[in-house]
Amino acid sequence: MNKKAFALAAASTLALTIQAAYAQDKPKPPPAWHQGKPPALAESKLAPVPGKMTETSAAEIPIDKMKLPKGFTAEIWATGLVGARAMTLNEDQSKMWVGTRGIGRIYEVSNEGGKRTVKVLAEKLTQPTSVYANGALYVFAIDKVLRYDNAAKGAAGQPVDMTQAFELPPEQHHNWKYVRVGPDKKLYVPFGAPCNICEPPTKEYAQIRRYNLDGTGKEVIATGVRNTQGFDWHPKSGELWFTDHGRDWLGDNGPEDELNRLSKPGQNFGYPYCHANKVVDPDVAKGKKDACKDVTLPVTTMGPHTAVMGIHFYTGSMFPKEYQGVAFIARKGSWNRTKKLGYDVVTVKAGPDGKGAKITPFATGFMDPKDDSFWGRPAYLAQLNDGSLLVSDEQLGAIYRISYQK
Amino acid sequence: MLTALFVSCASAQSEERLKACAACHGADGNSTIAGTPSIAGQPRIFLENYLVMTREGIRGTDVMQGLLKGVPDRDIVALAVHFSKLKPGTPKEETDENLFRRGREVAAKNRCASCHEKNFQGREQMPRLAGQREEFLAEAMLQYRQNRRPGGDTLMAAALYGIPEADFKALAHYFSRLK
């Protein structure tokens, strides 16, 4: 057979195989990636809530709609931070850095003389976040790690590229990172499951890791974590508490989002087989006995699809005594649910061992249940040295300050 | 007087900009150039997001980045409003029935319409796929697969997990033939 004829023959077999594949009527079972949209929801039109990628001025923010307990007031602290998420501050709080997702920016906010000015420190990054510690600013994008060594008075100079050291896996979905430096001076970095529900493609996902500050000493400290968006260390026990998003497409009422507590490194938090308070996954845990065996259950569930984000244990002196050591948690609000839920900041009061957790609404009024409309989506929290609490609003690209006066 | 001058200057600039867009995307927003998408009738929020990402240097081609460099949000919004109001063109007639059927099946099985709307006309941040250029759609799906279409919600790339690349062709064919 000459070359041309061979190529022709090969091309026609290829065409035949393709046609055969198309002619096949019996649908193959969906790959694990697709599981999780049951036929009952085939016509569902639920879709993520669109973010806003343009600036919102203070005059356009209906801050007076925010409702707080008696004695608390809210003010607009900073604007112009499109897509604002996690906040990190230097020691004297003259500088703050704020990360984003789609717009790819890290903002540097100067907080001087009672005024805030905003500049873009880094841009064109894939969903970057940042954390300040001991004079350095660490920037984590999904596919890149940068360090500004000289940041105590504002990040200066060119960053050092530390990407290689961290062994970041390639999948991007659910891999925006909340990053902190722990009391042990290590970097804590989460790697979400790159799907709604699946057996992750490799062992690099659905976990929280910690590293030495230079990226050495990688250690997986929690597994079975679908998509944590925030953590903090308990002021008494020093243990890591973290939020985690429940899976989608199992209906309006579950499985609920979680607040978890890591009492020893290596604990398994259940994903993908066991969600919330022992909800066995109907897609991937089929026929699996003991799906919840050895799974560490949450301190409390946090409501279905509420999108629990940042957590902050209050340690300031401004708020009344009953708020000491209480966890403030931002719930950005649901999309995979026919009626909106969340869109608020709640407090969780619990023992240091996580027992007796009680959830109480704190900042509400971002969403109007009457018509399901909303104006803001609280995402992260930070405490100022005077004891007031900052809340970032990812939707309007703003930061609000909540203070208390007797 | 000064403000009047400024306003007319700004609008002259946006006229120029619209002309530049038309050179590639068509005067009515419906492209006749391979690889260049039609943008008529896309949802306003989708357009806004795309144009902001392009201005930021995250998305789009060098030429578009050049055209949008330093353009303030309000002019981006005006561009988005303009193109969202234009009428999408009529899709190509000649259709490969097998490919079309396969595309319809894959789209149904994967619930693409839950986000992109029943007739794939798009809504809010989710683009219109109906009547879009076939080769552009196929290439966009490949880009999502290969992490080459940054900036958007990663849910879109996740929606394509497990779909073989051969089916991207079928999906693209199907969407491109819808009104």
List keywords for this structure.
heterodimer, A: 406 residues, mainly beta, Neuraminidase, five-stranded mixed sheet, four-stranded antiparallel sheet, B: 179 residues, Cytochrome Bc1 Complex, Chain D, domain 2, 9 helices, 57% helix
Please characterize this protein's 3D structure:
- The complex is a heterodimer of chains A (406) and B (179).
- Chain A is mostly beta strands and 406 residues long.
- Chain A is built from 2 helices and 29 strands.
- Chain A has a 5-stranded mixed β-sheet with strand order 10-11-12-13-17, with no helix packed on it. A 4-stranded antiparallel β-sheet of chain A has the order 1-29-28-27, with no helix packed on it.
- Chain A is globular.
- With 179 residues, chain B is mainly α.
- In chain B, helix 5 (97-109) crosses helix 9 (165-176).
- At the A-B interface, helix 1 of A face helix 2, helix 4, helix 5 and helix 8 of B.
Beta strand % of chain B: under 5%
Poorly predicted residue ranges of chain A = 1-30
Task: Provide the succession of SSEs of chain B.
Answer: HHHHHHHHH
Q: What fraction strand of chain A? A: 25-35%
The residue-averaged pLDDT of chain A reads: 91
How does the SSE layout of this entry go?
The complex is a heterodimer of chains A (406) and B (179).
Chain A (H helix, E strand, L loop, with lengths): L2 H21 L48 E7 L8 E3 L5 E4 L7 E7 L2 E8 L6 E5 L2 E6 L2 E5 L11 E2 L1 H4 L13 E2 L5 E5 L15 E5 L7 E5 L6 E4 L6 E5 L11 E7 L4 E2 L5 E2 L3 E2 L19 E5 L3 E6 L13 E5 L12 E6 L8 E6 L3 E2 L4 E2 L3 E6 L5 E5 L4 E7 L2
Parallel strand pairs in A: 13-17
Antiparallel strand pairs in A: 1-29, 2-3, 3-4, 4-5, 6-7, 7-8, 8-9, 10-11, 11-12, 12-13, 14-15, 15-16, 16-20, 18-19, 21-22, 22-23, 23-24, 25-26, 27-28, 28-29
Chain B lengths: L1 H24 L18 H12 L6 H7 L4 H13 L11 H13 L3 H4 L17 H12 L9 H5 L5 H12 L3
